[in-house]
Amino acid sequence: MDLYSHSWGQPDVTVAVKDIHVRYNVASSDAAAKMRRPERIGRRMIGRFPSVLVRAVAGVSLVARAGESIGLVGLNGSGKSTLLRIIAGLERPMRGSVFASSTPVLLGVNAALLPELSGAQNVHLGCLAMGMSPDEAREALPTIVELADIGGAIHLPMKTYSSGMAARLRFAIAMAMQPHILLIDEALSTGDAAFKDRSKARMDAMRKEAGTVFLVSHAAQTIEEECSRAIWLHKGRLVIDGTAEDVARRYRLYAWKLAKGQPEAAADLLAEAFGEGFDTTVHLIEPPGTGAPPRHANGAGSTTPELLKATFNQRR
Amino acid sequence: MRRSSQEAEAPEVDRRSKARTGRPVLHEVVHLDDLGHVYRRPPFGEYLRKLWGRRHFIRADARGRVISGSAGTVLGMLWLVLRPILDGAAYYTIFGIILNTQRGIPNFLGYLLIGVFLFRFTSRCLSAGASSLTSGRNLMKAFTFPRAALPVAVVTREAISFIPVLGVMMALILLLPPTEVITWRWALFPVILAMQFAFAFGLALVAARVTVHVPDLNQLISVLTRFWLYSSAVFFARERFESVPWLYEAMGYNPMFLVLDMSRDVLLYGVSPSVHSWVVLTAWTVVTSVGGMIFFWRGEERYGSL
Questions:
Q1: Residue B62 resides in a domain
Q2: pTM of the predicted protein model
Q3: Number of structural domains chain B divides into
Q4: Is B39–A89 a contact, with Cβ atoms under 8 angstroms apart?
Q5: Could you tell me if residue B133 is inside a domain?
């Protein structure tokens, strides 16, 4: 019997990621080094730098539900940030699709918005960019300033901010929209302890209101403390998807072995985790009919398991 | 709980998947009733509605950039007006005096002023539109909004900073000899300006998308603009090209030539522009603005990878 996860008796799905593949053609100095000099110079002249095909994400599927906070762990370059950008809709995958219940808000590390403008002006502009009216933006300003808590710096140009200050402001702006799906890409790692506590409190409150948080970090401890579920990515593939404690523990041990210079032991741990994981297959069921689907009073619960299985068999 | 170990130990697995990784498969059934595609562009009508919803953002962004654009210079915002005046002076010296292109052009000073000031608006919209997405990269990475808001904001910025320029141009036309009298035809000038604005708007949208596909075009645009400048009769008369009939004819379909020619007709010479000019310019305006909007919208999903 396959593993089935039914939509009834479960919180609502907020994000469904189905079989995402991303590849980049990127300039590579390694490829350049393997090339003979005239070819290298020639390519540089016409702006075609020697490149390699990097498989950033290779077939990742996952389903996130309301109230979950999902950590993404993995080494540098394992595809965590790419996956977040895909979920945010900022980048189009080569293959696969992403569905979300509301617009995901991505919080990245590139913090300065318009560097010449002051923090307060950036807050105003950011609020308008998210679709607030000028009045709403003016009302939101005090709350944002309070959450960011960067003092008088709010009136200084954003280019003078430290990375921590800019990250605080960005977080505060993003929270002003009360997003239901928040994607955080190491942005909070630059904050100090006091800010970490406050941002965690805000995220918890958000999750209680049926929100979902994705958090990228290569510090397993952060994931363990802040998340309920974790996903380990390795070279663009999903290694294991499970409780935050379990996955973070496995990943920490793996990273520790690597740091100790025991690649074989690390590879064993990776293989073990991979073997104990499972693959997710997402079955998307289109609402009946085209146009605005009629909303059932009891939603998805009205579908019987038999009908569901029949739908699979058709789709396979 | 859902992902407990007992689930992972399920004896039977999806056969197709087993061939790939040999791991058990968790089947997730997702009903799309309440879920939407995150990166698929909305239908055109909805896109326009969303863009309209961001009008406050467009205005604030445009205003912020007008101010920060001249930050760090001694004369600040004065440069908005000084630059075209100095450009005009340079053209006047080189073309009007040294090369003597003013022969046969009544009120050459007014002719040149209109040419330089108005052409500058279009060329600025074009180059700003081309770089609007790259310069708005931070905003795109941080917030979800219809990406057309960025080129629209730069065109709005150009329009805002064009207002004082326009005032100076009108003042100079009225003050510098030979002074012109105001006729009822001056009322046609705002119509021509509106058409030029719509045309430049479409152009900026096209440039914004095209430079995403081929970034090299950013380098080419300034060169192409120069060709365009010379073929729009900015500082010499169209009659210069009478010896090359096809070029002379083609100029009659050059939208910027039409804008300049019609503006001179109504502001300087007290003549009503020909019906032919109105028809051709209207066609350009409609095709470029509507076509530019659709063209930009169709590329919406690509702008994130900048």
A1: yes
A2: 0.78
A3: 1
A4: yes
A5: yes
